[in-house]
Amino acid sequence: MSNVGNNASKGGSKTGIAVAQRKRARDLLVQALYQWQLGGADAKDVEAEFRADNGRKTDWEFFHDALSYIAGHVAEVDQSFALYLDRDLKQLDPIETGILRLGLYELGQRIDVPYRVVINEYVDLAKKYGASESHKFINGVLDKAARKFRAIERA
Fold it and tell me: 21, 71, 84, 112: which could join 144 in a potential S-S bond, CB 3.0 to 4.6 Å?
């Protein structure tokens, strides 16, 4: 996954979007991706439903950008983390898949967010939504991916 066309200049976390609104968007995105993956609905319909049901205190621009990118580039996103897995991608639980897709989206496309923040946010979401030990798995995969996607930042 390249950084071509990344969204670093679009409303980064330090340019006025409240941290709580970004956290809420990530939380809702885990749920939206789960619904999108299992239900097969169009991503635009899933987004419209989440917007209607969840009010204003969310970074909807981030939500839209992430959901749209992942839905439009799902094979590329999956390929970007598949080489860091210790099992076949098809064996992942849908929650883990969604969290990894979101984490890789942010590592590759949202360079305005420090890689440690990305990893911590998705480890926390894995603790909230994933199986009992999935947060360790998510941490390991995202940490390995950060070595590639954020090599300069990690140096």
Answer: 84
